[in-house]
Write a structure and sequence with these properties.
Number of helices of chain A: 17
CATH superfamily of the largest domain in chain A: NADH-ubiquinone oxidoreductase 51kDa subunit
Distance between the termini of chain A: 50 Å
Largest interface: A-B, 31 and 20 residues
Distance between the termini of chain B: 28 Å
Helix content of chain A: 40-55%
Number of domains of chain A: 3
Helix content of chain B: 10-25%
Largest sheet of chain A: 5 strands, mixed
Oligomer: heterodimer
Order of helices and strands of chain B: EHEEHE
């Protein structure tokens, strides 16, 4: 089978960092559009947020615009990318910083923001340096009209959640808070604030140039445009791919050089995502409905292939322990519940739990759902629930025997070191 | 009249557990003592109990809200 030439809107080859001159010779100056027309165009494009929640971008822009109502507002490009398996945002911001900054400036003009900020993680120092250099190039031209700042946040999973981002930019600890008010209502310093993932802003910059019809010319009506995915795991060539919603998991694997071992399961979305049995998802596209059919969402765009030569129980065990350690410690079901879940799952994995522990985990997975100020506990228990389902046979084996042939393998899903602070 | 329900602020709540004693018809406790709220509307028969539970919460974490009030995190499919 010969696949069509993939559409590369955000990340054309060769992927070398594009300076302002190269960016301008590719796309020219960004258009200065009437705010109302631009927001309408973003709405018509059907673009959705690429940070994980897939909220309609146009709806968000309009909400901030209306809330600001001619007064001041703030826009933030969220480049925290705290999802450990993902590196699509860093890749994009490194290769095409000016496309992202175009989108950020356009968003600022559309909603009437005087402050435009790029939020990066302290873990990504190299990215911060290249970003500051790119912003410097634009300032020297002096006609950009929007002054862009860079704010650094802690290397923590929930520090990229949008209320944590607005807290950090306001000078407080980068912890999520209860909503409402959502950032569009009261964000940075109490102002209406638009927080948008960097990939989303890059798409918005292209919609501003080429229009909603152009944007919708690839993909499906419900999930139009292209999307960046991080393909990782048992692949010959792990990396970031630009695909659209007609692309199947099999095609993503093929474009990643094929599998390096027979696949058993796929983790879709990220560490807050879902395990799906490989044979159930292999021929499915990444369209929202196709993934929903197997209980998954594309989330932050992670596609991680687990080979039959790895232990899904051991992988899940490590990730659950990581997620439990990433709680902001504010809400009981997360602060107390996630460590209890991780500890019990670990006991199952090493064979020191009773069989009833699996039923207890299933009940906790239901009990904890929807009970945090942010979605961190939801992500952890939905991930857990999918593991209980997909690895049911393996889990029963672990309860009896403690180990399996592959539980001693090196980790496929890495977990980063976490810093102690929250600023 | 707008239908109403109970909602807890999960950051304020410190698992005192009084609410579930005052309105067990709508609030049970999880294994760690934190309340799990039944999202169904509160009928006239339960309204007095709900108000008492709100008033007695030592952390002022419990509220009565309209069932359709936006922004609740208790629907995991509600994107933010």
């Amino acid at each position: 089978m010969t696949a069509a030439v993939p559409t590369a809107r955000l990340l054309p080859f060769p992927r070398v960092p594009e300076d302002l001159t190269a960016h301008l010779s590719r796309h020219g100056e960004r258009p200065r559009l009437d705010a109302g027309l631009l927001v309408k165009s973003i709405e018509e494009s059907g673009l959705r947020g690429r940070g994980g929640a897939a909220f309609p971008t146009g709806t968000k822009w309009r909400a901030v615009m209306q809330r600001a109502a001619g007064g001041d507002a703030v826009v933030i490009a969220n480049a925290a990318e705290s999802e450990p398996a993902s590196f699509k945002d860093r890749t994009l911001l490194t290769v095409r910083p000016h496309l992202v900054l175009d989108g950020l400036e356009q968003a600022a003009e559309a909603v009437g923001a005087r402050r435009a900020i790029v939020y990066v993680s302290r873990a990504h120092g190299e990215l911060r340096r290249s970003l500051v250099a790119a912003i410097g190039e634009r300032r020297r031209r002096a006609d950009s009209g929007v002054f862009v700042e860079v704010v650094t946040g802690p290397n923590r999973y929930v520090a990229g959640e949008e209320t944590a981002v607005t807290a950090r930019v306001s000078g407080r600890l980068a912890k999520p808070r209860a909503v409402p008010p959502r950032p569009f209502q009261r964000g940075v310093d109490g102002l209406p604030t638009l927080v948008q993932n960097v990939e989303t802003l890059a798409h918005a910059a292209l919609v501003a140039r080429f229009g909603a019809g152009w944007y919708r010319s690839v993909g499906t009506p419900k999930t139009p445009g292209t999307t960046l995915v991080t393909a990782t795991g048992a692949l010959r060539m792990a990396g970031v791919l630009e695909v659209d919603s007609t692309t199947t998991i099999a095609e993503i694997v093929e474009r990643s050089g094929g599998v390096s071992a027979e696949p058993a399961a796929v983790l879709v979305g990220g560490y807050f995502g879902r395990w799906v049995a490989a044979d159930a998802i292999w021929q499915r596209t990444i369209d929202v409905d196709a993934l929903r059919g197997v209980g998954a969402t594309l989330g932050a765009g992670v596609i991680a292939v687990l080979p039959v030569t790895a232990c899904g129980v051991a992988e899940t065990d490590r990730v659950l322990t990581y997620l439990a350690g990433q709680t902001a410690g504010q809400c009981g079901p997360c602060r107390v519940g996630l460590p209890a879940i991780a500890e019990t799952f670990h006991k199952v994995a090493i064979g020191s739990a009773r069989p009833a522990a699996l039923d207890l985990l299933a009940r906790w997975a239901t009990d904890v759902l929807g009970r945090g100020a942010c979605r961190h506990p939801d992500g952890a228990v939905l991930f857990l629930a999918s593991a209980l389902q997909v690895f049911a046979t393996d889990l029963r084996h672990h309860v009896r025997s403690g180990v399996c042939r592959f539980s001693g393998q090196p980790a496929l899903l890495g977990v980063p070191e976490t810093e102690a602070g929250w600023w | 009249m707008v239908k109403q329900r109970l909602r807890v602020d999960p950051i304020k709540c410190k698992a005192h557990g009084m609410c579930s004693e005052l309105i067990p018809e709508r609030i049970r406790l999880d294994d760690w003592g934190y309340p799990i709220i039944d999202p169904r509307a509160i009928g006239p028969d339960l309204l007095a109990h709900a108000r008492r539970a709100v008033a007695e919460c030592p952390r002022a974490a419990l509220r009565i809200v309209g069932v359709d009030e936006p922004g609740a995190r208790d629907r995991p499919d509600d994107p933010d």
